Amino acid sequence: MDLRIAHIHLANKWVRIDGISPDLKKVLSGFKGDNLFGYMYIDHTAGLTLEAVKLFTLENEEIIYQESPPDKQTRVISRLDAVITSSEIRILPEEKIETLQLELPFPLDSYKRDDLEDFRKEEAFHEFRGEGFPDDIQVLFPPTEKLKPELVWGRVEKYENNKITFQLLNQPHQNFGLNIHNTATATVQNIENKTYVVCKLDLERPPSTQLKEKKWWKFW
Asked: Considering the chain, what is the average pLDDT of its residues?
């Protein structure tokens, strides 16, 4: 599974995980069971996340529930990198959810970002997403007369008319007039037959023909 687009398949879904990975076992330390039922959702700042709801073992294919986090009035969550290395992950159909009587121990409304749903589905941004972090995008600061092009990471906060508004997640090496945590806008652009998410910089610089000088594009 391409982790950059895993959210399309897994977000807002009940899943069955057989053969919990060692990393996931560490997160579930103190609980028994090699398999679990859980709910996947997107945490805007922490990426695709699993809520562990029911742990179980299998005896002759029969599901035997074990003590699980909700039984102890606690939450156990895990990020995608620990989940994806488990032996098998299956999305549960609606009828199976009803049969198993699975219920979330608390509402997840606080994590909803309906305003970003179109952005998360937009294929043009997929190759630039962080693995397991669908709202984090690699953005290009284009060259100016004095500055070389630079790739940075931004967290998208708004998507409208094919334009993203993002918060800068790292400090650029050069002085583009933007610093970590600042907000800027960007769009997908084709430059010399290669696609980038290009930031709009509020700097006085030569016309966009500067972008053709690709031979000296050295990224930090």
From this structure: 91
What region, left, alpha or beta, does residue 37 occupy, with left being phi > 0 and alpha being psi -120 to 50 degrees?
beta
pTM, rounded to two decimals: 0.88
Long-range own/partner contacts, residues 54-58 (CB < 8 A, 24 or more apart) = 54/100, 54/102, 55/28, 55/31, 57/32, 57/33, 58/34
pLDDT at residue 135, as a whole number:
98
Q: Which of 84, 109, 112, 104 is nearest to 37 (CA)?
A: 104
Which has the minimum average pLDDT: 4-8, 89-93, 109-113?
109-113
Yes or no: say if 17 and 88 are a contact pair by the CB < 8 Å rule: yes
Ramachandran category for residue 47: left, alpha or beta (phi over 0 → left; psi -120 to 50 → alpha): left
CA dihedral 3, 160, 181, 107 (to 10 degrees): -60
